[in-house]
From TrEMBL:
It comes from the Bacteria. Keywords: ATP-binding, Nucleotide-binding, Transport. The lineage of its organism: Bacteria, Bacillati, Bacillota, Negativicutes, Veillonellales. Residues 13-238 form the ABC transporter domain. Gene3D superfamilies: P-loop containing nucleotide triphosphate hydrolases (3.40.50.300). GO terms for cellular component: membrane protein complex; plasma membrane. PROSITE patterns: ABC_TRANSPORTER_1, ABC_TRANSPORTER_2. One of its GO terms (molecular function) is ATP hydrolysis activity. SUPFAM superfamilies: P-loop containing nucleoside triphosphate hydrolases. This is Macrolide ABC transporter ATP-binding protein. PANTHER family: ABC TRANSPORTER ABCH.1, IMPORT ATP-BINDING PROTEIN.
Length: 238
């Protein structure tokens, strides 16, 4: 079987001239300025930079959670600006799995029900929801915690529930915003090994982090500075 070169790899994300500004009264406050970025299928990309560099804003745009002020964003060749709010919601549910620093689990739902939730919005049949959710929780090592509430689990376990929830609709792209920010070193390694395995399975993984050890799980690094890309390279961080 032929191996694709970088030139032949399938492009899933292309940003051209992306800018994002907010307004305080009549004053424009730019957060991102002229971002050009291409990500191909199966890459593991870290997005790094100091606080205020625009990392989370860029992730929100990539994840179709926010719209840019200017520029072009094509996801799988389709211009995101042309999508309706309903189409954006469908895209988020089907194509992208999100993992956040704060887990974003619903505290009154069990691990199982938290993982089932995206399938309700995805119109998955009720019987299939539970089967898929159980398998996904087992795949992240939580088969014995399916009925536990978030408050009954450690931070690492809650993050693994969040990863299971992100994966349950089998998205092609996983986006993680500081997923280890609230975890100890042992839990960090466990969670990052899951992301590494997803990359090996062919998923596209995009990770926002300020931790070098975490970023080094990725094979490409995009560094933001004052709202623009200052570095974009492959290899390990020193």
């Amino acid at each position: 079987m032929a191996i694709k070169t970088d030139e032949q790899a399938e492009e899933v994300i292309r940003l051209q001239g992306i800018g994002k500004s907010y307004y305080i009264g009549d004053q424009e406050v730019p957060v991102l300025t002229h971002i050009d970025l291409s990500i191909t299928k199966g890459e593991f990309v870290s997005i790094m930079g100091p606080s205020g560099a625009g990392k989370s804003t860029l992730m929100n745009i990539l994840g179709c959670l926010d719209r840019p002020t200017k520029g072009s964003y094509k996801l799988d060749g389709k211009e995101v600006a042309n999508l309706t709010d309903k189409e954006l919601a469908y895209t988020r549910n089907k194509k992208i799995g999100f993992v956040f620093q704060s887990f974003n689990l619903l505290p009154r739902l069990s691990a199982l029900d938290n993982v089932i939730l995206p399938m309700i919005y995805g119109n998955v049949f009720k019987k299939e929801r539970k089967e898929r959710a159980v398998k996904m929780l087992e795949s992240v090592g939580l088969g014995d915690r399916i009925d536990h509430m978030p408050a009954e689990m450690s931070g690492g376990q809650r993050q693994r529930v969040a990863i299971a929830r992100a994966l349950v609709n089998d998205p092609a792209i996983i986006m993680a915003d500081e997923p280890t920010g609230n975890l100890d070193s042992h839990s960090t390694r466990e969670v990052m090994e899951i992301f590494a395995d997803l990359y090996k399975m062919g998923k596209t993984v995009i990770l926002v982090t300020h931790e070098t050890d975490v970023a080094n799980y990725a094979n490409r690094h995009v560094v933001l500075s004052d709202g623009h890309i200052s570095k974009d390279f492959k290899g390990r961080l020193l």
